[in-house]
Amino acid sequence: RTMSSRQYASVIDKAFINGQWVSAASGKTFQVVDPATCQPISSVPDMNIDDVKLAVASADKAFQSWKHTTAKERSQLLRKWYELLVEHQQSLAEILTLEAGKPLSESLGEVGYGNAFVEWFAEEAKRTYGEVVPSPVKSRELIVLRQPIGPVGLITPWNFPHAMITRKAAAAIAAGCTCVIKPAEDTPFTALALAELAAKAGLPKGVINVVTSSRANAGPIGKYLCESPQIAGISFTGSTAVGKLLYEQCAEGVKRLGLELGGNAPFIVFAGANLEKAADGALASKFRNCGQTCISANRFLIQDTVFDEFVAKLRQRIEKLVMGDGKTAGCTMGPLINMDQVKKVEQIVEDAVAKGAKVVVGGKRALELGERFFHPTLLTGIKENMRCYKEEIFGPVAVCIPFSSEEECVKVANSTERGLAGYFYTGDIAQAWRVAKELEVGMVGVNEGLISHAETPFGGIKESGIGREGSKHGMDEYTYIKYVCFGNL
Ligand code: ADP
């Protein structure tokens, strides 16, 4: 274990396979940097297929006994894991801020949210009920069982390094599956800290394995997991491009697949809405995690009669954001995660400005703070030919577009191949119900900008994904339904 330079919680510099802290067989490592300072935090093993084979074998071996545990045993171990996660929430949040850059208060929020999945699935583990079906013929009894699908591969992104793992792993483990986790290359330390606490809680070796790798090895590792006959399913959260590739790779083995991909959330403000609350919700939805959230508001559609007033209110709130190193007290917005993200956000803003958009506030990098900081930005004068109109921005850039009728705005909101989240603010209850039903998304916030809970189903429609995580539906991905017919009774 190495201490980070600034006396933050210590990070683990080894991967976790079969209950052991291990290096890559090749001996290779890669460096992970703090996005706020661009200073190295530590290195972790740069694993490849040779290492993943061991992790898969370990998960497979563990599954042979884990699948025979009782739901109550799994529940109790998950509960212990949850209690340790709560006990260590401060250091987990510190590690998260160190590697992901988000303000410490936000990291504590993510840890609370992420921990809640472990608590939830500790409880749900006991409720994987089957069914007894009334038989249409005499002398038969018809039973439906739910059984764990087997070892699963979990591939997670850097924007929620804690919650994206617990949301998958806790559900898988509750169902009786074992897992091989491949965290994002930018944020491996949270994953390793989670595994350490899982082991401490008494989860048997091989139930959780964490394989760290650089970006260069992520492709081959993903392919191996998709194609390995020992892996029963894949759950992925990340970009649409990689999600589509995994879908393809899973086809050969007709493998279970859960996908949580990109969004392009509309955030609609109708004329009768409470504009103060709408602006608060807009700020929270857009600028949390520096805009790097798949359910972030991506397009603000504002009814023309309140457009100027809403823009002014949002601007006031944006100007109060305190950008800086997430480790400093009072900081409310951190840096972008990496230079690819910085370039993408910068190009999207430059493209809009070149095509006539107006920068109300922000619009450029904050180099005085560091390479990866981008000022929170508000753009108006948006046209359909601008990249920000269609693409997922994934950065601290709010674009406001006026509309005149409900029909028009719903049409614009739905004019995307994505369908993850959508938000709208209204004072009219009939409109609330109508628009909630019309939006082509998996999750809707009515007069609310932050809507995720462990208790509710998270997921999208259209190209935003397949399946649901969290909630009572979250274990479906990890269980098979088996019908058993008792005949000749
Ligand atoms: P982002 O563009 O936001 O980094 P990605 O979809 O590229 O999102 O990354 C999400 C996760 O997918 C990360 O853990 C990353 O290492 C992994 N990944 C990247 N490329 C591949 C791939 N070809 N196959 C499997 N996983 C991949």
Automatic annotation (TrEMBL):
InterPro entries: Ald_DH/histidinol_DH, Ald_DH_C, Ald_DH_CS_GLU, Ald_DH_N, Aldehyde_DH_dom, Aldehyde_DH_Superfamily, Succ_semiAld_DH
Record EC number: 1.2.1.24
Primary subcellular site in the record, as a coarse category: mitochondrion
Pathway(s) of this molecule: Amino-acid degradation; 4-aminobutanoate degradation
Catalytic activity: succinate semialdehyde + NAD(+) + H2O = succinate + NADH + 2 H(+)
Keyword Heme carried by entry: no
Keywords on record: Mitochondrion, NAD, Oxidoreductase
Subcellular location: Mitochondrion
Highest rank taxon of the organism: Eukaryota
UniProt keyword DNA repair, yes or no: no
General function of this protein: Catalyzes one step in the degradation of the inhibitory neurotransmitter gamma-aminobutyric acid (GABA).
The protein, known as: Succinate-semialdehyde dehydrogenase
